[in-house]
Give the backbone structure.
Amino acid sequence: MLLELKNIFKWVNSGGQRIFLLKDINITVEEGEFISVMGPSGSGKSTLLNVIGMLDTFDEGEYHFLDESVHSLKEKYRSNLYKEYIGFVFQSYHLLDDLTVYENLEMPLLYKKYKGAERKAMVADMLDRFNIVGKKDLFPAQLSGGQQQLVGVARALIGKPKLILADEPTGNLNSQQSEEIMGLFKRLNEEEKVTIIQVTHSEKNAAYGSRIINLLDGRRI
Amino acid sequence: MLKNYLKVALRNILKHRLFSVITILGLSVSMATCLLIILLIYSQKKRDSFHEKGDRIVRVLSLEDSRSFASTPLPLGNMLSEDYPHLIEDAVQIRSSFVGGDMIFGENRIPLAGRYVDDRFFAVFDFNLIAGDVATVLQAPFSIVLTKNSAEKLFGETNPIGKSVKLSDIGLNTMGIDVVLTENKENVLGDFVVTGITDNSLPSHIQFDFLISASTLPSLVKQGKSDITFDTWENYFDAYLYLVLKKGVSEKDLQPILNAIASEKYTSLEDVNITFAPEKLSQINLSKFHQNPMSLRMPVEVIYVLSFLGIIVLFSACFNYVNLSFARSLARSKEIGVRKTMGAARYQVFVQFMMESILVGLLSLAFAIGLLQLLSRMFLNLWINRFLILDFRFDIALFLVFILFSIVVGLMAGVFPASFLSSFSPIKTLRNTKGITLGKGKGLPLRKGLVVLQFCASLLFIITTLLIFSQLNYLMEKEYGFNQDHVINLKLQGIDHGTLADELSKNPSIQGISASSFVPGTGGYSGGVLIKNRFSESQSDVASSFIAIDQNFIPNLKIPLKAGTNFPSSMPKNSEEYVILNEAAARLLGHNEPKAVVGETILLGEDQIPVEVIGLTANFIYDLLMEAEPTDPLIMRYLPHEFAYLNIRYAPTASTKSIISYIEHKWKSMDKVHSLKYNIYEDELKGTNAIFSDIIYIFGFVSFLTITISMLGLLGIAAFTAVSKRKEISIRKVHGAQAKNITYLLSKGFLLLFIIAVLVTVPLSYFVNVLWLEAFAYKVNFSPWIFIIGVGIMFTTGFGTILSQTLSAANDTTSLLKRLKEE
């Protein structure tokens, strides 16, 4: 078991009313799964992903990640945990505009305190694997959307995470680029046993996964 | 990691040019000002750092009630070194009076100034003695040590050692100030043997062209060439005393001994009551001002004021950095979110932003050092620096201080923005729509407060500068009570005034010539004298300043005679019989109706010499205008031996140039050695306010800086406000808002801040400025116009800046749809 959510509730208070963003969510994710989270806008998909990614907190329930109880961990340990095991991919890529492709890939390694030579090797390896060696000195603005997302995935993978969280990774891409990225996810999942949880609107993309979680108004259905 | 931070920082600086130019420009000009102050302090601190025993050398001060003197009574030195050998290793005394005049060797004759010093001088201080023996060089009477510089001037290639030079004393000094000669005759001191040459090019507070052995003095006194005293404890103006303490002895151990001596010597004395205090050599160049100084330097109070101004300017520039960083936080929020998601801890983001601000600080330093070259040159051109010895050379230590300073500035500017930016939570920053609130919400009161502070500082400086300027104008225009137009004052330099006057009066364009001991209004002073009413026994002693004048002085300068007569054309040369008073002096003698004093006999001085008051003049300003009071008493006396100046009035139709060349011609025929020294009276009087033009320069410059910096900041903020409100502007436009509505909407926030600043600053600047203005007897009215003009200047520049941004935002013709979509 990679992670387990038990009776997760998350709410905000608005105008004296409690609005539930997540309501009684129970999920168990095994290593090597490829899960798609689906649901209409505002159903809590991204919130769920952020909770799993430990970027966001929840108000009630238990969250176990590997052997740790995330709900009782302090902020600092939590960030160490996700730093080590989780990689993020965003809809709008979120590459740093001021950094080259190479530097964008290197950035997470800096925060994980890898030595210079090690970083160099890891980045080179990643550039190689994604076939973007020729683009390493370009800035994000000089790349197409598909290429940017490729770098985004590479950046998420570079720290060798157990889990990749992708929030509508193909939302800004055309269909051909989408297929490339989804194909890449599929290969990563199958060949390297990386666990993937993606949020998506598209049935087609969801089909790449092994399991679908449907949300509506913060509940699983 | 560091490399990555630097790279990002540098790219950010290059990318956001407006932000970078504003912050770096502001920081570099303000840093340049601070560097100048550091340089100033450093150059003072560096003085006298070359003495090997420097950390053990102390100078003894004499303390009066509220004043302190750099000098001490002469007997103190011997007493200390003889009675306390366990504490004091060595001691040297330097006579406080200068000896200076023409030094003659063969055909060469040059004016030099120096001091009488003990033979221990070179043992205590490490002035480099190029030739001569440290132990004996100043032992024998009539020994003289020349500086390398003066030796070269006087001897050229010849070896000076063992040669004999003649020296006469006219009271020349090394301070660059014209002394008013009390004795107008040259005092030929005799022949001196050159025993040593010293190189005194290292900066020191002890300045001299030559040194004479103090053992010379008894002979001079015997010959009647000096009236210097040797053993009075009452006179604490005579000598500077420097002690070398034994190793391990601190100056605090000296204090009880000094206290004991002072109480032993002075408790029985009625009119002298002083105590002594030691001052470390390292403190001499940076401590508060002492009376009877060894040499002139920038008083520490001035450095305080300058530092205060520098810090205000620097803060203002730092505020810009803080404000603009906050305003720009939106642009950086995505980066922060991504970095945190990728595993950056808060402190890492914090460090990153600190690095960035330090980099900005260092970049600013590079520009600031360039600006410093310009600024220090401007500073050295100030009038005051004619009297100061400043050494603005660079060295490594100074450079390190500069770097350290710029890092501190970077930290100071960066700490607020860095802690704010690093607090962003990734989840919020990465959601596009929510990001917008970040820029507006947090830190807004802080930003507004900083803008108000900048407004306040700018306004305060503008008002102060305007006031100083109008005070200067007032002083420039002020009537002195005599007529200074078309008058040239000539320094007699020992030439007989009668002979020269006879020669000059041959020129028909010269209408009048008079002689005086000093020139009224130019800072000269002949001394004070006790005056007494002959018949009122009860009257306590009163003192008045005096000036020595001849019969022509009053008509020549067109001083109004209120009663009585001028001095008659023939006056007894040797005894004083008549005096003329001004009205203030008459009132001081108890006459409510000043005219009544004419014909009275009054007693002058300690010896109570009876003289008759034959005339009464109106009050005229004879002191420096800045220091003068309307009630300053003055006695005009006929003392020909005190005459030091000729006042030459020429016809308004004659050209000043031709008169001067005529005078020059006559002068050369009478004195072949000294060059003619003269001043055009009108210019000279205006020149006495030179210190004011210095202050105006400094304040004007500082106001300019604070205004520029705050306007730059305003420009940046207005620009960012316009950008961050683009969506709002578009929505309003869709609903029919006009450009002027939008402009008003964007500008009104600043108007409120401006009003707050005016309300705070106007009363503040009034009270601050009244403080210094009160020190002047002759002062300008603090007119409301100064406030109105000051506020007007601020308003125009401020709103000009804001409007330049808001107008362009309001008139932004980019399609509304595009703007609405992109947000």
